[in-house]
Amino acid sequence: xxxxxxxxxxLVQAGESLKLSCTxxxxxxxxxxxxxxxxRQAPGKVRExxxxxxxxxxxxxxxxxVKGRFTISRDNAKNTLYLQMSDLNSDDTALYxxxxxxxxxxxxxxxxxxxxYWGQGTQVTVAx
Length: 128
Known about the structure:
Number of strands: 11
Structural class: mainly beta
């Protein structure tokens, strides 16, 4: 079992930056062995993929909408996943979730059905 808690959300102006964190507790061995991802859900929209990272950080994927602006990273020693977001715009306003896979394989990282553990989310609001 892995429990995930996101933090770092808030209200920012367009063009500013924000860094989200996701801290794992429980079976931290599982955290270090599994791929992780960030998803987001804007009001009235379905949840969408943002970024994913393999257990050893060798494989990373981004949604086209955030490529070049967002950076996903992880510190397995601290059991923490990060999402550095820069040049934010109003389209980035959403509830951001971190998620962990059950299995260690980095397959279909953009498919939320591949993820077993989810946090409660942290709100990011970008004022234009």
